[in-house]
Amino acid sequence: MVEGVPSHADWWPQVMDPLRRFGNRVAEFFSPPSDATASSEAYIIEIELPGVREADIHVEVHGDQMTVSGEKRSSRDEKTDSYIFSERTYGAFRRTFRFPPDVDETGIEAHSEDGILRITLPKKAETAQGKRRIEIQRAPKGVTGDPRPNFE
Q: How many angstroms separate the CA atoms of 76 and 82, rounded?
């Protein structure tokens, strides 16, 4: 150690503490990236959640919206570890998605594998076809050529 020049142990915490506090604030706004696709049968939403345990993920439906929330927990011990840098994000996250009107909320499924949460939102059968056939019924007795019913 050179006299008058601070050692690594002296100056490094002064540099890293403000950055660590900034990282903690960024973690408060953690919003995982996602993709959405559609087919004739369903909408698929895939959300990147690497390092998040399935037990820490919550998917809830509220009317025409679905909220995915949870927490990515840190495994580091700030009291004993001395990080040079950390780019990983930790903390709570929340994403809300609004459903298109043709989603069948009763059939929603979610699966997690390899850090990807895949949510399948099936389309309602009638809307998936894009049309609905109206059955023609026999007119009630007493109806003449006049389009108005005869209630005699």
A: 10
Q: Decide if pLDDT at 49 tops 70.
A: yes
Average pLDDT over residues 65-69: 94
Buried b (16+ CB within 10 A) or exposed e, 23-33: beeebeeeebe
> What DSSP string runs through 40-98?
SSEEEEEEE-TT--GGGEEEEEETTEEEEEEEE-----TTT---S------EEEEEEEE
Single-letter amino acid, residue 97:
F
Classify the C-alpha dihedral 69-72-73-78 as positive or negative: negative
Averaged pLDDT for residues 130-145: 70
Report whether 83 contacts 20 (CB < 8 A).
yes
CA distance 36 to 40: 14
Report d(CA 51, CA 65) in Å as an integer.
26
Between residues 101 and 145, which one has the greater pLDDT? Answer: 101
More confident position, 41 or 25: 41
